[in-house]
TrEMBL record:
The keyword Coiled coil applies. It comes from the Eukaryota. This is ATPase inhibitor. Keywords: Coiled coil. Residues 48-75 form a coiled coil. The keyword Coiled coil applies.
Length: 83
């Protein structure tokens, strides 16, 4: 019961604000109207776009880390080969 009371005080858009990356919005406005087909499709496209951007950022970060590791490994090999 306490959970319902707090949910009623917060608008659905405010509740979903931080979770859009993980779950679709089920309500498009404060009246509680369920999303229409076009709105749902647009929401799904937006979610996929955000996920794609997040994956691209993670890939760039990983590529950078790999390049740094290779550079460090190459620097470590140089002193050994000169002996």
């Amino acid at each position: 019961m306490a959970m319902r009371a707090s949910v009623n005080k917060i608008s659905p858009s405010r509740l979903m604000e931080g979770t859009r990356m993980f779950a679709p919005r089920y309500f498009s406005d404060k009246s509680g109207r369920v999303l229409g087909d076009e709105e749902l499709a647009a929401e799904n496209i937006w979610i996929k776009k955000m996920e794609r951007e997040k994956l691209e950022k993670m890939k760039q970060k990983l590529d950078k880390e790999i390049a740094e590791a290779e550079k460090k490994a190459a620097a470590d090999k140089k002193p050994e080969s000169s002996k």
